C-alpha cells in the first residue's frame, strides 16, 4: 500500500489494513521540527523574562519624592510584569501550535468593557500619583469642593472640607477638572472689596487704607499691598484691597480683622459706605372674591343699611400716628 506524504505539522502515522503504522522515513524530520518549535517557544519565554527583569531594574532606579509615587510605581511594575508574562506565554504556545490569541483577545476585550469605569479610575490614580499635582495635607479646590486632601488611592481622592465633611471624588473626574492648589506657595494674596459712596473723601479713605495695611503685622510688606480701582457701582466707587500673607494662616480671621478696622476708621472719619434698603410688597395680585368685594365697597360706610353712605375715616396722618417710611422694610 502506498504511503501518503506528510508535512512537518502532520504526525508520521499512516493507517494500514492491520492498524496504524509509523512512517519512519518522516519521523526524524517531524521530531526535529517540533524540537525547533519548542526551542523557539523557550527562547520567547527567556526573552520575556529578560524584559521583565530589565523593566523592574529600570523602574527601581527611578527617583520618587513621596510615598504616593512609590506606591504607584510598585503597582505599575506589577501590571507591566503581568502583561509581559501573558504576552510571552501566548506567543510561546502559538509557536508550538496552540493558538490562544483569540481567547486572550476576547478575554481582555470583555474585561475592558465590563470594568471600563474601574480601569479608568485606576489609570487616573496612577497618573495622579506620578504627576503629583497635590499631596496629602494640601488645601486644594476641585470642581466646587475646597478642602484638605485627606486620602489618595488608586480609585478616588478624599477631601476634608472646612466644615468637617468628607468629599470623595473619583480619580477620573479629578483628571478632567482644573485643580487649584493653595499649598504649593508659601505666600497667598487676600482681596477685600470696599465701596465708597459718591461725594466721599477718597483721599482721606486712601490714607486710612495705608495706615491700617502698614500697621497690620499679619501682612507682608514685600510683596507690598495695593489699593486698585475695580468698578463704578450704582451707589459708589468700588476699590479692591490686595495684600499678601504667609501661608498657611487663618485668612478668614485676617480679612475679618481688616474689615472691622476699616469700618471703625470710616465711622470715625465720617466716610460714607453706601447700602441699599428695599421695600417688599405682596406679589400676588390675583383678583379674589374678597378683594372684589372690598373694591366695590371702597369708600362706603359698611354700617349703613344700603352701603350708600360714604365712610368717614380719621386722617391717618394726624399727630402721633405719622408713618415713618424709613422704618418700612
Task: Explain how this protein is built.
The protein has helices at 24-61, 67-95, 101-114, 116-131, 171-175, 202-215, 251-269, 289-296, and strands at 13-16, 19-22, 139-142, 145-152, 156-161, 166-170, 179-181, 187-197, 226-232, 236-246. It is built from eight helices and ten strands. Strand 5 and strand 6 form a beta hairpin. It has three domains: 13-114, no CATH class; 124-181, SH3 type barrels; 187-269, Alpha-Beta Plaits. With 329 residues, it is an alpha+beta fold. The strands form three sheets. The protein has a five-stranded antiparallel sheet. Strands 8-10-9 form a three-stranded antiparallel sheet, with helices on one face. Strands 1-2 form a two-stranded antiparallel sheet.
Short structural description:
The chain is an alpha+beta fold and 329 residues long. It has helices at 24-61, 67-95, 101-114, 116-131, 171-175, 202-215, 251-269, 289-296; strands at residues 13-16, 19-22, 139-142, 145-152, 156-161, 166-170, 179-181, 187-197, 226-232, 236-246.
How many strands in all?
A: 10
Assembly state: single chain
Number of domains: 3
Q: State the helix count.
A: 8
Query: Helix share of residues?
Result: 40-55%
Q: What is the 3D form?
A: elongated
Strand content: 15-25%
List SSEs in N-to-C order.
Answer: EEHHHHEEEEHEEHEEHH
Largest sheet: 5 strands, antiparallel
Rg result: 42 Å
Low-confidence stretches: 1-9, 315-329
Strand order in the largest sheet = 6-5-4-3-7
Mean pLDDT: 76
Helix/strand-derived class?
alpha+beta
Amino acid at each position: 500500500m502506498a504511503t501518503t506524504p506528510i508535512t512537518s505539522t502532520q504526525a508520521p502515522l499512516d493507517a494500514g489494513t492491520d492498524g496504524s503504522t509509523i512512517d519512519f522515513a518522516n519521523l526524524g524530520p517531524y521530531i526535529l521540527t517540533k524540537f525547533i518549535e519548542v526551542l523557539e517557544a523557550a527562547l520567547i519565554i527567556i526573552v520575556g523574562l529578560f524584559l521583565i527583569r530589565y523593566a523592574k531594574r529600570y523602574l527601581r532606579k527611578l527617583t520618587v519624592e513621596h510615598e504616593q509615587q512609590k506606591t504607584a510605581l510598585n503597582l505599575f511594575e506589577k501590571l507591566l510584569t503581568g502583561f509581559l508574562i501573558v504576552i510571552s506565554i501566548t506567543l510561546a504556545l502559538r509557536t508550538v501550535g496552540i493558538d490562544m490569541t483569540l481567547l486572550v483577545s476576547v478575554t481582555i476585550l470583555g474585561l475592558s468593557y465590563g470594568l471600563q469605569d474601574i480601569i479608568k479610575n485606576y489609570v487616573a490614580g496612577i497618573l495622579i500619583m506620578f504627576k503629583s499635582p497635590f499631596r496629602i495635607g494640601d488645601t486644594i479646590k476641585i470642581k466646587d469642593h475646597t478642602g484638605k486632601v485627606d486620602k489618595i488611592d488608586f480609585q478616588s481622592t478624599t477631601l476634608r472640607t472646612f466644615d468637617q465633611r468628607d468629599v470623595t471624588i473619583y480619580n477620573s473626574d479629578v483628571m478632567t477638572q482644573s485643580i487649584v492648589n493653595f499649598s504649593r506657595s508659601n505666600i497667598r494674596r487676600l482681596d477685600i472689596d470696599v465701596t465708597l459712596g459718591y461725594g466721599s473723601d477718597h483721599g482721606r479713605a486712601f490714607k486710612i487704607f495705608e495706615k491700617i495695611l502698614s500697621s497690620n503685622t499679619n501682612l507682608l510688606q514685600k510683596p507690598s499691598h495695593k489699593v486698585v480701582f475695580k468698578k463704578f457701582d450704582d451707589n459708589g466707587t468700588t476699590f479692591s484691597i490686595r495684600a499678601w500673607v504667609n501661608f498657611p494662616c487663618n485668612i478668614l480671621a485676617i480679612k475679618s480683622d481688616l474689615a472691622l478696622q476699616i469700618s471703625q476708621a470710616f465711622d470715625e472719619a465720617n466716610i460714607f459706605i453706601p447700602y441699599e434698603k428695599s421695600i417688599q410688597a405682596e406679589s400676588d395680585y390675583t383678583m379674589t372674591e374678597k378683594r372684589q368685594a372690598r373694591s366695590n365697597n371702597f369708600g362706603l360706610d359698611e354700617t349703613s343699611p344700603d352701603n350708600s353712605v360714604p365712610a368717614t375715616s380719621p386722617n391717618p396722618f394726624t399727630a402721633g400716628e405719622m408713618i415713618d417710611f424709613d422704618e418700612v422694610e
